[in-house]
Amino acid sequence: MRTILPADNNPALREVAREIPVADITGAPVKKLIAQMKALLSKEEYGVALAASQVGEPVRLFIVSGRALARNSRNAPDEPEKKIERPAIPDQVYINPVLLKISRTKKEKHEGCLSIRGKWGIVPRAEKVMLKAYNENGEQFTRGASGFLAHVFQHEMDHLDGILYTDKATNVYDEKPEEHE
Protein backbone atom coordinates (compact mmCIF):
# COMPACT_ATOMS: atom_id res chain seq x y z
CA MET A 1 0.00 0.00 0.00
CA ARG A 2 1.26 3.46 -0.88
CA THR A 3 1.54 6.34 1.58
CA ILE A 4 1.49 10.11 1.25
CA LEU A 5 5.16 11.03 1.25
CA PRO A 6 6.52 14.16 2.93
CA ALA A 7 7.91 16.78 0.56
CA ASP A 8 11.46 16.42 1.89
CA ASN A 9 11.44 12.68 1.05
CA ASN A 10 9.64 12.70 -2.30
CA PRO A 11 11.53 13.78 -5.43
CA ALA A 12 8.37 13.17 -7.54
CA LEU A 13 6.91 16.38 -6.07
CA ARG A 14 9.51 18.42 -7.95
CA GLU A 15 9.08 16.60 -11.28
CA VAL A 16 6.76 17.57 -14.11
CA ALA A 17 4.43 14.58 -14.13
CA ARG A 18 4.07 12.59 -17.34
CA GLU A 19 0.78 11.97 -19.12
CA ILE A 20 -0.91 8.61 -18.79
CA PRO A 21 -1.51 7.11 -22.25
CA VAL A 22 -5.29 7.15 -22.80
CA ALA A 23 -5.23 3.43 -23.66
CA ASP A 24 -3.71 2.73 -20.19
CA ILE A 25 -6.34 4.63 -18.17
CA THR A 26 -8.62 1.60 -17.73
CA GLY A 27 -5.73 -0.82 -17.18
CA ALA A 28 -4.99 -2.58 -13.90
CA PRO A 29 -1.98 -0.44 -12.82
CA VAL A 30 -3.90 2.85 -13.12
CA LYS A 31 -7.02 1.37 -11.48
CA LYS A 32 -4.87 0.14 -8.57
CA LEU A 33 -3.20 3.55 -8.19
CA ILE A 34 -6.61 5.28 -8.16
CA ALA A 35 -8.00 2.82 -5.59
CA GLN A 36 -4.99 3.32 -3.31
CA MET A 37 -5.15 7.10 -3.63
CA LYS A 38 -8.88 7.12 -2.82
CA ALA A 39 -8.23 4.95 0.24
CA LEU A 40 -5.45 7.27 1.44
CA LEU A 41 -7.54 10.38 0.87
CA SER A 42 -10.53 8.91 2.74
CA LYS A 43 -8.37 8.55 5.88
CA GLU A 44 -7.38 12.23 5.89
CA GLU A 45 -9.73 14.28 8.03
CA TYR A 46 -8.73 17.56 6.38
CA GLY A 47 -7.52 16.27 3.02
CA VAL A 48 -9.60 17.49 0.08
CA ALA A 49 -7.50 16.26 -2.86
CA LEU A 50 -4.47 14.14 -3.66
CA ALA A 51 -2.11 14.15 -6.64
CA ALA A 52 -0.30 10.99 -7.76
CA SER A 53 3.01 12.84 -7.27
CA GLN A 54 2.24 12.96 -3.54
CA VAL A 55 2.44 9.16 -3.37
CA GLY A 56 5.66 9.11 -5.39
CA GLU A 57 4.09 8.45 -8.80
CA PRO A 58 4.86 11.35 -11.18
CA VAL A 59 1.87 10.89 -13.51
CA ARG A 60 -0.81 13.45 -14.42
CA LEU A 61 -3.57 12.27 -12.09
CA PHE A 62 -5.34 13.77 -9.11
CA ILE A 63 -8.42 12.97 -7.08
CA VAL A 64 -10.79 15.45 -5.44
CA SER A 65 -12.66 14.05 -2.45
CA GLY A 66 -16.43 13.98 -2.37
CA ARG A 67 -16.18 16.02 0.84
CA ALA A 68 -14.51 18.88 -1.07
CA LEU A 69 -17.09 18.67 -3.83
CA ALA A 70 -19.90 18.74 -1.27
CA ARG A 71 -18.31 21.74 0.44
CA ASN A 72 -18.15 23.58 -2.88
CA SER A 73 -21.81 22.85 -3.67
CA ARG A 74 -23.20 24.44 -0.52
CA ASN A 75 -24.83 27.74 -1.30
CA ALA A 76 -26.29 28.70 2.04
CA PRO A 77 -24.65 28.53 5.45
CA ASP A 78 -25.58 25.42 7.39
CA GLU A 79 -28.44 25.90 9.77
CA PRO A 80 -28.15 23.38 12.61
CA GLU A 81 -31.91 22.84 12.96
CA LYS A 82 -32.29 22.29 9.21
CA LYS A 83 -29.49 19.81 8.55
CA ILE A 84 -30.39 17.95 5.39
CA GLU A 85 -28.84 14.54 4.83
CA ARG A 86 -27.59 14.46 1.28
CA PRO A 87 -26.21 11.39 -0.42
CA ALA A 88 -22.43 11.27 -0.36
CA ILE A 89 -20.77 12.74 -3.43
CA PRO A 90 -18.22 10.30 -4.86
CA ASP A 91 -14.58 11.27 -5.26
CA GLN A 92 -13.73 12.60 -8.73
CA VAL A 93 -10.73 11.46 -10.72
CA TYR A 94 -8.88 13.81 -13.08
CA ILE A 95 -6.41 12.17 -15.48
CA ASN A 96 -4.20 14.23 -17.82
CA PRO A 97 -5.93 17.47 -16.77
CA VAL A 98 -5.36 20.62 -18.81
CA LEU A 99 -6.35 24.12 -17.72
CA LEU A 100 -8.46 25.63 -20.50
CA LYS A 101 -9.37 28.92 -18.84
CA ILE A 102 -8.19 30.79 -15.80
CA SER A 103 -9.67 34.05 -14.59
CA ARG A 104 -7.53 37.14 -14.15
CA THR A 105 -9.21 37.89 -10.84
CA LYS A 106 -7.23 36.41 -7.97
CA LYS A 107 -8.07 35.90 -4.36
CA GLU A 108 -5.75 35.05 -1.50
CA LYS A 109 -6.76 31.87 0.27
CA HIS A 110 -5.55 29.85 3.24
CA GLU A 111 -3.86 26.67 2.00
CA GLY A 112 -2.19 23.55 3.33
CA CYS A 113 -0.87 20.31 1.85
CA LEU A 114 -0.80 16.67 2.91
CA SER A 115 2.84 16.57 1.78
CA ILE A 116 3.82 19.52 4.01
CA ARG A 117 2.20 18.75 7.34
CA GLY A 118 2.10 21.30 10.12
CA LYS A 119 2.40 24.32 7.81
CA TRP A 120 -0.14 26.64 6.22
CA GLY A 121 0.13 29.54 3.84
CA ILE A 122 -1.72 32.33 2.10
CA VAL A 123 -1.71 31.75 -1.65
CA PRO A 124 -3.12 34.01 -4.38
CA ARG A 125 -5.14 31.89 -6.83
CA ALA A 126 -7.47 32.61 -9.73
CA GLU A 127 -11.13 32.86 -8.72
CA LYS A 128 -12.36 30.70 -11.62
CA VAL A 129 -10.88 27.96 -13.77
CA MET A 130 -12.00 25.48 -16.39
CA LEU A 131 -10.21 22.25 -17.06
CA LYS A 132 -10.42 19.28 -19.37
CA ALA A 133 -9.48 15.79 -18.19
CA TYR A 134 -10.26 12.10 -18.44
CA ASN A 135 -12.15 10.18 -15.78
CA GLU A 136 -11.20 6.68 -14.60
CA ASN A 137 -13.28 5.16 -17.42
CA GLY A 138 -11.20 6.95 -20.06
CA GLU A 139 -13.99 9.42 -20.87
CA GLN A 140 -12.99 13.03 -21.51
CA PHE A 141 -14.92 15.78 -19.72
CA THR A 142 -14.72 19.50 -19.02
CA ARG A 143 -15.37 21.03 -15.61
CA GLY A 144 -15.54 24.64 -14.53
CA ALA A 145 -15.03 25.71 -10.95
CA SER A 146 -15.02 28.84 -8.86
CA GLY A 147 -14.06 29.67 -5.31
CA PHE A 148 -12.86 26.79 -3.17
CA LEU A 149 -12.91 24.14 -5.91
CA ALA A 150 -11.03 26.40 -8.36
CA HIS A 151 -8.41 26.83 -5.65
CA VAL A 152 -8.16 23.04 -5.17
CA PHE A 153 -7.78 22.46 -8.92
CA GLN A 154 -4.91 24.95 -9.12
CA HIS A 155 -3.14 23.42 -6.11
CA GLU A 156 -3.34 19.95 -7.68
CA MET A 157 -2.31 21.19 -11.13
CA ASP A 158 0.75 22.76 -9.49
CA HIS A 159 1.64 19.35 -8.01
CA LEU A 160 1.58 17.88 -11.51
CA ASP A 161 3.98 20.60 -12.64
CA GLY A 162 6.46 20.11 -9.78
CA ILE A 163 5.32 23.21 -7.87
CA LEU A 164 4.44 23.33 -4.16
CA TYR A 165 2.11 25.89 -2.60
CA THR A 166 5.03 27.17 -0.52
CA ASP A 167 6.62 28.35 -3.80
CA LYS A 168 3.69 30.71 -4.37
CA ALA A 169 2.61 31.59 -0.83
CA THR A 170 2.83 35.19 0.30
CA ASN A 171 3.01 33.96 3.90
CA VAL A 172 3.82 30.52 5.32
CA TYR A 173 3.33 29.77 9.02
CA ASP A 174 3.29 26.85 11.42
CA GLU A 175 0.04 25.23 12.36
CA LYS A 176 -1.02 26.37 15.80
CA PRO A 177 -1.47 23.46 18.22
CA GLU A 178 -5.02 23.28 19.48
CA GLU A 179 -5.46 24.78 22.90
CA HIS A 180 -6.22 22.14 25.50
CA GLU A 181 -8.03 23.32 28.59
Describe this structure as you would to a colleague.
Mean pLDDT is 89; it is low at 74-83. The strands form two sheets. This protein has a five-stranded antiparallel beta sheet. Strands 4-5-8 form a three-stranded antiparallel beta sheet. It is 23% helix and 30% strand. The chain has four helices and eight strands. The protein has one domain (7-73, 89-174): Peptide Deformylase (Alpha-Beta Complex), CATH 3.90.45. With 181 residues, it is an alpha+beta fold. Its EC number is 3.5.1.88. It catalyses: N-terminal N-formyl-L-methionyl-[peptide] + H2O = N-terminal L-methionyl-[peptide] + formate. The active site is at 156.
Helix content: 10-25%
**Major beta sheet, specifics?**
5 strands, antiparallel
The average pLDDT value, as a whole number, equals 89
- Given as residue ranges, the uncertain stretches (5+ residues, pLDDT < 50) are 74-83
What are the secondary-structure elements, in order, as H or E? HEEHEEEEEHHE
CATH fold type: Peptide Deformylase
Q: What Rg is obtained from the alpha carbons, in whole angstroms?
A: 16 Å
**Order of strands across the main sheet:** 1-2-3-6-7
Task: Please name the fourth-level CATH homologous superfamily.
Answer: Peptide deformylase
Determine and state the CATH class. Alpha Beta
Broad shape:
globular
DSSP strand content: 25-35%
N→C terminal distance: 38 Å
Structural class: alpha+beta
Number of strands: 8
Question: How many domains, as an integer?
Answer: 1
**Helical element count?**
4
Second rung of CATH, namely the architecture: Alpha-Beta Complex
